[in-house]
């Protein structure tokens, strides 16, 4: 049975009593099969698994969905129990930020201002600040993050490297619905019609990957992805081809194709690995 803790003091006591490799999976709750894959990966690599459930106000903009973000603690706990999680840490906002918004926040650097950071100013300052706080509180040997949020995974890896955090960051492949839609807690905002339009994100990525497999160059790969996205009910935010560190403009070799789009009032993201053929 997972132990459910709400205070930093309880967590510190539980952590003190734990030996052996500790794995942490950080979440905002509303757990789904994507999160379950992270829990399985953690269970395989770590003797002791801690899950954090915290909807972090610091990473939401003033007009974003902090208030309506789904909060489903009972079913989350059931999923954690089934997955053999040892500790669930589910603090309140005042427990995490007793003095209100922290004056000192982590600066994600230039990548934090691009892609997701362009549409969500301050987002990665909020993400990295809470991830660092949760790393300090849980002191894990391993921390598991989903590739679905590839820019987040990249920035967390960079933070851990730049700030000498003694934790290995493990990326877990994106879990999809059978029709290709990347699992996301925000999918539950979609009507049936919007869910059909949302398929255009993964369709664009598949079209890009298929063009790369045919040996097409970067420009053709991107054009194929754009053509496949062409649906009236979804509005593109960005569709970019980068290198695997999210720097712009790869011409050959391993790359990443990333997309963000609005479907109604819901903003969705997705990405895939691409391998560009060597240039002649
Ligand atoms: N489909 C997925 N496959 C793999 N990992 C995922 C998937 N969805 C979320 N994750 C990972 O789970 C962790 C917690 O994410 P979070 O709780 O924000 O869920 P989410 O579904 O991404 O929510 P949202 O839709 O609000 O962004 C992150 O590391 C995230 O990348
Ligand atoms: C990493 C995270 C838990 C920080 O709030 C959040 O950004 C998420 O769920 O991906
Ligand atoms: N899944 C990343 C957290 C967020 O979108 O707020």
From TrEMBL:
It catalyses: (R)-pantoate + beta-alanine + ATP = (R)-pantothenate + AMP + diphosphate + H(+). One of its GO terms (biological process) is pantothenate biosynthetic process. Its EC number is 6.3.2.1. The keyword Magnesium does not apply. (R)-pantoate binds at residues 59, 152. The keyword Transcription regulation does not apply. It is found in: Cytoplasm. GO terms for molecular function: ATP binding; pantoate-beta-alanine ligase activity. InterPro entries: Pantoate_ligase, Pantoate_ligase_C, Rossmann-like_a/b/a_fold. Pathway: Cofactor biosynthesis; (R)-pantothenate biosynthesis; (R)-pantothenate from (R)-pantoate and beta-alanine: step 1/1. Beta-alanine binds at residue 59. One of its GO terms (cellular component) is cytosol. ATP binds at residues 28-35, 146-149, 175, 183-186. It holds the Pfam family Pantoate_ligase. Keywords: ATP-binding, Cytoplasm, Ligase, Nucleotide-binding, Pantothenate biosynthesis. Belongs to the pantothenate synthetase family. Homodimer. The reaction proceeds by a bi uni uni bi ping pong mechanism. This is Pantothenate synthetase.
